Amino acid sequence: MNQTVKELHKERMKLWNASIANHAKYIDTTNGLFKDEFIEYRPCPVCNTNDYLTLFSKEGGFYVKCFKCSMIYINPVFTDEALNDYYENNHPVQAQIVESSDSFYDNLYNKGLDSIEIAGSKGTILDVGCSSGVFLDLAKNRNWQTSGIELNVQEFNMARQKGHKVYNTLMENINFDSKFDAITLWDVFEHIKGGEFYLNMMKNLLTPSGVIFLQIPNSDALAARILKEKCNMFDGLEHVNLYGVNTIRQLAERCRLKVQDIQTVIPEIGVINNYLDYDDPYLGNADNKTDIYNLIDETMLNDQLLGYKLQVTLGEAK
Prior knowledge:
By secondary structure, the protein is α/β, with parallel strands linked by helices. The chain has helices at 5-23, 80-88, 93-100, 104-119, 134-141, 153-161, 195-203, 222-227, 245-254, 269-276, 298-303, and strands at residues 27-28, 33-34, 39-40, 52-58, 61-66, 72-74, 77-78, 124-128, 145-149, 165-167, 180-186, 206-217, 241-242, 257-265, 291-292, 296-297, 309-316. 41% of the residues are buried.
């Protein structure tokens, strides 16, 4: 039986609650913000300027918007050491949700694989932040040779036990035997502080026709613009960089990468209607999940790239 949207959000609420509980040891209880020992200030991760507007605080962190390029990011942000500690000891709830869901993630993963296979050649694939390996399972079923990287020890062991070649360390610490036809990051790139550094590193790991595929939260999403800090896109710690259509294009250009395909998925129409009906956006009971006040439907929303997540396929600029 297919999960309803409300049931899926109830499951994902477990992920949210587990993440917030994991924040606790980093919080200064006197002000509700992250302790100074764990954080550092930084320039815009896209255009490298320091001129920004503070938007709001959420669960200990502050989201800001760059005046020059409109990038939205957390500032101050966790230090590399604090982030690595957080992820290595984080909960496995995300893996449990993906493993137990029915068609929701399979549909997203297969849509991404379709874009990858249209843009490049099928062969070897590396999934960065592969969790328990559900995406790699699908890729293997489509005749890809699968490898992954996962920092969380529990999830790393789950993926390895399925027969995938998996590394339990940062990408920069790995000496790969060969290059890849595709490198994927499913809901991972927003967790990476140095997006430019990692895109350049991944570009050097690609075969001549290889591609990088990203699924990331879309800061241009209609749901994010309407809900603002009530939107689960903003978690205050993990989602350090929130790209929109223009900012991910700008970053790709800095890395001499070309956007070969860009689409949005997950319209969140029911979530928006819940909120506009003065209800809990994720657990409300809005009946209408097909359009917003007869003004915009899923097709129109995705045509304007206003869906909740961006799927972006990048290839090396020639």
